[in-house]
Amino acid sequence: MLEVTATALNNVKEYLGQENIESAVRVFMMSGGCSGPGLGLALDEAKENDLTFEEDGVSFVVEKGLAETCGAIKVDYLESSSGCGCSGGGGFSISSEKPLPAAAGSGCSSCGGSCG
Predict the structure, then answer these.
(1) Helix and strand element counts for the chain (H, E)
(2) Domain 2-96 is classified in which CATH homologous superfamily?
């Protein structure tokens, strides 16, 4: 249901360690404006309606309804040398097995491709 690549897990663990944070990491759906909704990461605590996944000492949480909507979710980390021109650097890439529902009125012709 949730796959976290070794590179992504290492980056999460490094950040949590540097900042001395013991929080869970939430995968959530964010509104994406021009490009439509996407998945993101945030620090949060598990709630009653969440699924919790443990990866090498790090807790990841996903709201059950989102997990049902998305199917399998993959968290990866793209290095800046990956050639993705969207943000000019590396970062987390969160993808889902099923497409996210489009928000009404989202999308525009001036946006380029997606980074994952």
Answers:
(1) 2, 7
(2) HesB-like domain (2.60.300.12)
